[in-house]
Amino acid sequence: MRPQESRTRGAVKAFSRYDALAMQEPLLAAPPTMVDPVNGTRVWLFDEPPTLVDQTLGPLTASVARYLTVSVESVIQERWIRGGKKVTFIHDWRESRDYEAEGRNLMIKWGKDSLAHAQRVWVQIGSDATPFLRIATSTGISALKFVRMPIDLVNDLGPHLKDLLPLRPVALGR
Question: Could you tell me if residue 19 is inside a domain?
Answer without folding.
Answer: no
